[in-house]
Amino acid sequence: MIRAKRNRTARAASVAQAAPAGGARIARGRGCVYVLSCLVIMSTATAGAEASLPVPSGQTIHLNDVLLDENPGELWVRFRFVAPRIGSLVGQIGYDVAAIDMDHLCASLAIPYVTLHDLKPSRVVISLADRVVSFGDSNPEATQFFEAYRLENARCIWEEF
């Protein structure tokens, strides 16, 4: 049984704010249980191993956290994943392939999540990082890919930054 935890606040420590004043809420509780249940059900990992979500590239992706980020007047839901194989070196998964995975994650995970919780986000952000990076922290050694979407008619519509 996964127990619900109290919401925590993620705050940016760098000069450029990654979240509005007051920070973003880390979504925990029933929503987290639902997302983790989906990951466990769809996982082909052996018992006791960390659950991973299958994506088109075949890389192993783990959900790190879900943040509810209330920008001034808007809600952004951020799904943050760890994808250790992303990068720009030979043999790593580059942005062009990872973008397809992020589209897939938006459709297969974000839409059911926001529907279940009756959220009306202005944007959904899917991010992949090759290692765990705390929200708002800068890590020059880390590779991170981001995509933003608006949800329309139960579809993810890519939003160019």
List keywords for this structure.
single chain; 161 residues; alpha+beta; 7-stranded mixed β-sheet; 22% helix; globular; disordered N terminus; Acetolactate synthase; DUF6497
Describe this structure in words.
It is globular and about 40 Å long. Mean pLDDT is 77; it is low at 1-22 and 28-49. It has one domain (19-159). By secondary structure, it is of the alpha+beta class. A seven-stranded mixed sheet has the order 1-2-3-4-5-6-7. The longest helix has 22 residues, at 95-116. It contains two helices and seven strands, in the order E-E-H-E-E-H-E-E-E.
In short:
With 161 residues, the chain is of the alpha+beta class. It has two helices and seven strands; from the N terminus they run E-E-H-E-E-H-E-E-E. The chain has one domain.
List the helices and strands and how they pair.
Blueprint: E1 9-10, E2 24-26, H1 30-42, E3 62-71, E4 74-82, H2 95-116, E5 123-129, E6 144-152, E7 155-159
Parallel strand pairs: 4-5
Antiparallel strand pairs: 1-2, 2-3, 3-4, 5-6, 6-7
